[in-house]
Specification:
The chain is of the alpha+beta class. The protein has one domain. Helix content is 31%, strand content 18%. The protein is built from 3 helices and 3 strands. A 3-stranded antiparallel β-sheet has the order 1-3-2. The longest helix is centred in the middle third of the chain and has 16 residues, at 38-53.
């Protein structure tokens, strides 16, 4: 994760601050909260997309879905929003497969079969 130095920690801190196991977020929210530059915003976006494509094994969060925010004249928000969730909350992935090692009931941990 050296390519995204500091970004995973910022995302984790943001999720903990908001006491959320699952939440829609935007890069703009993170940029505003942590006073990030435009360049860092691009890195945040790349990191979130990477979490959707194939999560880091030891990172506690994954991105389940990315949606385009529709442009509206009344709001100055453009871009994407990301559904970030805590790994192992019993959430089903895009492929329809459940997170390995977890049951789908109340986030209980099920021993992995070997």
């Amino acid at each position: 994760m050296r390519k995204y130095e500091g970004i995973p920690e910022l995302l984790e801190a943001y999720m903990v601050e908001n006491a959320a196991d699952e939440r829609w977020i935007t890069v703009q929210e993170l940029r505003t909260r942590f006073n990030l530059t435009r360049y860092q915003s691009v890195t945040v976006s790349a990191f979130l997309r990477r979490l959707e494509q194939g999560p880091f094994v030891r990172y506690p969060y994954i991105v389940l879905k990315i949606e385009r925010i529709p442009a509206t004249p009344s709001e100055n928000i453009r871009g994407d929003r990301y559904l970030v969730t805590l790994r192992g909350c019993g959430t089903v992935h895009k492929s329809g497969e459940q997170e390995p090692g977890y049951s789908g009931t109340a986030g209980e941990i099920v021993p992995a079969e070997h």
